[in-house]
Request: fold
Amino acid sequence: MKGAVRLDAVEKRYPSGGFALQGLHLAFAPGQLTTVLGPSGCGKSTVLRLIAGLEQPSAGRVWIDGEDVTHCGPDVRPISLVFQSYALFPHLDVQANVGYGLSRMPESERARRVDETLAMLNLQGLARQNTAALSGGQQQRVALARALAMRPRVLLLDEPLSNLDVALRRQIREDIRRLQQTLGLTVIYVTHDHLEALAISDQVVIMRQGQIQQIGSPREVYEHPHSEFVADFMGDAAVFDGHVDHLGQLYMGPLRVPSAPIRRTGPVRLVVRPQAWRLSPASGQGMPGQIEASSFEGRITVYRVKTRLGTLQVNRHHERQRLEPGAPVSVFVDASCLSLLLPDASTGQMP
Reply:
């Protein structure tokens, strides 16, 4: 399978001397969808532009399928890029936009390729429409169709859903995943939205300040973050100091955590997500708490609970009876939902 991409010791320096990327070693497996995730300014779009050939690295090499393409232009690389702004031609209709990059093909083959690609994205009925008259979701599909019409080995997507509402984002990311799997494409997808990354990726690369913080499957980076930054960036994480005594018992402040699978003693840092907390009517067990506020959000009810550990966010699913503000509760934590950071943040795995 073709479409392997590799960056070897890649650096990108600003004219001022600062770094956009620092010593990046990164491999994208063929036929997989990899999201590059991180806050604004972390270097993720620079990675995409270097792979596309729109920028040159200050140092290092870019490889596609074992070929050094570092100094090759975009036109000779087997890639297509979908921009955040779509970059459609407003004076051309949908059909002409999709076929724009196929001008060197015989006319009959070009028409067949365009028709096939329009069908992939259910755009046949819009072939003669002017792109300026289309909705945002339709324009995004046209931009995706234009990229796919080139039959690239590697498809690059730069925050492709950021201009769409929630329902359209979900629908189009499902289209992207379906096409990636059907066509066996290598897709490199840049986003700042961790939910998008979790929903569609085979592999997630998390970046910060031009460097890689962690690489892994969506489940790995969510459940076993390597650092507090990764834990927090992957959504609603709280980090607490804990201690394991000589008997192997874990404590988080006043809260005893039974059955925690930790094979070390001494201080630890614990990542706890809102769904790990458990609430029950106030009793002499667990940690005392008091409901401060709550909000119903469809499938979950989100509580703010005042405790000796601070104010916690607690998510409860399929709740029949809502807890009122001021209600006393006992707070527990599900040990199986904890992630462990060692004091040096070395692995983020339960040792």
In short: The chain has eight helices and 20 strands.
